[in-house]
Design brief:
Blueprint lengths: L10 H8 L4 E5 L5 E2 L14 E5 L3 E10 L5 E8 L4 E6 L12 E10 L4 E10 L6
């Protein structure tokens, strides 16, 4: 997995991922959650945003299976808190995936043994549709 570009203002996000936690931004002014993390709320432009731990569950909004070379799945997952995030679906049967399928967060080390990067939040199908 490629090493993502990291920025100092997202340090807390990557630190939480290393601990197996998915955190997202929450606006204290309008109450909306958002992802990709940014300083200003994209809904009301408030600077009163804080990190909150997400449940780590959601549903597949859309996905694409790449079968050339090593097969992989890129997807948009709608988190239970509301935001959509681009991610990979891992540890799954590629032919069993479907839109609105329940998924849960799973962290994957980016990079390789010689050049490890941060843990990246990916998703895997939930064992139950209610997770």
């Amino acid at each position: 997995m490629a090493i993502p570009e990291t920025h100092p203002e997202h340090e807390e996000y990557w630190r939480a991922a290393a601990e197996g936690k998915l955190i997202i931004k929450h606006c204290e002014s309008c109450g909306e959650y958002h992802h990709y993390p940014r300083v200003l709320c994209p809904f009301c432009k408030s600077e009163k945003t804080t990190w909150k731990e997400a449940k780590g569950t959601g549903t597949i909004y859309t996905y694409s299976v790449m079968r050339k070379g090593s097969p992989y799945v890129i997807a948009f997952v709608t988190l239970d808190e509301g935001p959509r995030m681009m991610t990979n679906i891992i540890d799954c049967d590629l032919d069993e995936l479907h839109i609105d399928q329940r998924v849960k967060v799973a962290f994957m080390q980016s990079g390789n043994q010689n050049n490890p990067g941060p843990c990246v939040p990916c998703f895997t199908p939930s064992m139950t549709e209610n997770s």
